[in-house]
């Protein structure tokens, strides 16, 4: 065992002892309670270069996040944190931005500990909030000579309460790559646009938040494999101002695909110890850099770690969203037994106006062999339930599928079987990539209602009491730092309509 392996194997116990000594939860996501004071050295420079984020919003709680990194691209200085080990981070939440300056008006506040072993990340699960409302939050740490560093002020939103007909509007983002093959960079014009919106309730990141491969424009320029490599790559992507701004302004739900780890990995069949360790490093880096409610995934050793990332997201009466994990359990099956059972149970029992199955890879029968189409058994079980529910309750069961991965925005349908003859059981909206390129060209036909070849951006989804709407917000200028995106003519589904009846209207 090399020196780096010895260090990684010791993370779990070191982390537990530090948290236990601080009087905080050892689970990784710190409870929203006041914490004790700590005698530590101050941070020398502004540590909030990666901004703030919130995520996994429920009706009564939300996770707020930051990661301290004065030098987010320099692992040799421990990302600018030097010899510091445990850093107290104060946090506060209020109903308005101005109330953050008045302690009497804070809704919640406390102190967490940013641990070196966790990349100096902080996850606070703030509970006791009201449903259906906006909140503001910020962090602060002590600097030298009595100074204080304050983070950017974050804005978040709790999920809508059940009841009522409030419309939910959210964005879906997939496949964001910085590094071009010719050594240049791609630009996130979709994020530039999304960050300025006031009508979005939350954002779903549905796979390939970054790419692990080596290219000249990537930092480091080689393929990432160590824990510090993954931390650095996250830092590079989060230094994009518009991506940080999206995180600052909207709660997010994150579901990785493969490139956050390594290309086409199969979590249920990783192979040798080297792949297991690499997976564990990537999993820890994912946890460190995202506002996840999950507990710390555990020490980086020879046994595969795990984060329970598949989950159900209910936003009021009109939207019930299920995020599937198509990578961690992949082996003999796509989803694993427990996730499959939970997904099927959800499909059978959900009563929301719109039942949205969000999955990183397409269910569409012609969507390639990198996901559902390689696992016919689970695909058939899911499509069978979709058909049964729509047949039994056609007026109230309204299924849609949201996916990504194939680097082209496509409006199509899920057929009962993997063929071009069986009936439609749901409409599928495949997201346009943020920047990732493809040489494939799709054309409208009996299967494809619309295709956005060579267009990049994000997908805006609206779930209302009488209809579902998707607008592709895209452009073709990812190589141009001054490029733009525009909203295309939206696609509509009427509540109660049969699958296959998607249409466009101005």
UniProtKB/TrEMBL annotation:
SUPFAM superfamilies: Metallo-dependent phosphatases. Residues 50-158 form the Phospholipase D N-terminal domain. InterPro entries: Metallo-depent_PP-like, PhoD-like_MPP, PhoD-like_sf, PhoD_N, Phospholipid_Metab_Enz, TAT_signal. Residues 170-444 form the PhoD-like phosphatase metallophosphatase domain. It holds the Pfam family PhoD. It comes from the Bacteria. PROSITE patterns: TAT. This is Alkaline phosphatase D.
């Amino acid at each position: 065992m090399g020196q780096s392996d010895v260090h990684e194997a010791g993370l779990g116990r070191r982390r537990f002892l530090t948290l236990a000594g601080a009087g905080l939860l050892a689970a990784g996501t710190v409870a929203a309670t006041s914490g004790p004071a700590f005698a530590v050295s101050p941070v020398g420079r502004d540590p909030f270069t990666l901004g703030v984020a919130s995520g996994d919003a429920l009706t009564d709680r939300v996770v707020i996040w930051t990661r301290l990194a004065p030098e987010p691209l320099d692992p040799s200085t421990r990302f600018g944190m030097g010899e510091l080990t445990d850093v107290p981070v104060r946090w506060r939440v209020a109903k308005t931005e101005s109330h953050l300056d008045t302690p009497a008006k804070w809704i919640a506040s406390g102190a967490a500990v940013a641990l070196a072993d966790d990349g100096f990340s902080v996850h606070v699960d703030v509970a006791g909030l009201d449903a259906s409302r906006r909140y503001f939050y910020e962090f602060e740490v002590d600097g030298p000579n009595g100074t204080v560093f304050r983070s950017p002020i974050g804005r978040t939103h709790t999920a809508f309460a059940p009841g009522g007909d409030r419309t939910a509007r959210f964005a879906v983002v997939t496949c964001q790559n910085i590094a071009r093959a010719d050594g240049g960079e791609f630009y996130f014009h979709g994020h530039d646009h999304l960050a300025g919106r006031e009508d979005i309730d939350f954002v779903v990141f549905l796979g390939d938040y970054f790419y692990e491969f080596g290219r000249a424009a990537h930092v480091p320029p080689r393929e990432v494999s160590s824990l510090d490599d993954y931390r650095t790559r996250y830092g590079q992507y989060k230094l994009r101002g518009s991506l940080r701004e999206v995180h600052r302004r909207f709660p997010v739900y994150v579901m990785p695909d493969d490139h956050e780890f390594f290309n086409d990995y199969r979590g249920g069949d990783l192979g040798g110890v080297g792949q297991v360790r690499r997976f564990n490093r990537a999993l820890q880096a994912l946890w460190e850099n995202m506002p996840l409610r999950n507990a710390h995934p555990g020490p980086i050793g020879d046994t595969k770690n795990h984060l329970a990332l598949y989950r159900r997201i209910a936003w009021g009466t009109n939207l019930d969203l299920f995020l599937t994990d198509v990578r961690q359990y992949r082996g003999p099956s796509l989803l694993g037994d427990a996730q499959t059972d939970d997904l099927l149970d959800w499909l059978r029992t959900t009563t929301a106006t719109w039942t949205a199955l969000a999955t990183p890879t397409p269910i569409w029968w012609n969507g390639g062999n990198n996901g559902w189409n390689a696992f016919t058994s689970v695909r058939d079980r899911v499509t069978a339930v979709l058909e049964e529910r729509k047949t039994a309750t056609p007026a109230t069961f309204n299924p849609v599928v949201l996916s990504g991965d194939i680097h082209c925005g496509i409006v199509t349908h899920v057929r009962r079987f993997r063929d071009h003859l069986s009936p439609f059981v749901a409409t599928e909206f495949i997201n346009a990539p943020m920047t990732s390129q493809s040489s494939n060209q799709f054309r409208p036909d009996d299967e494809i209602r619309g295709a956005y070849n060579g267009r990049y951006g994000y997908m805006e989804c609206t779930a209302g009491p009488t209809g579902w709407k998707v607008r592709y917000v895209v452009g073709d200028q990812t190589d141009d730092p001054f490029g733009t995106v525009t909203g295309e003519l939206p696609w509509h589904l009427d509540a109660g309509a049969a699958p296959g009846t998607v249409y466009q209207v101005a």
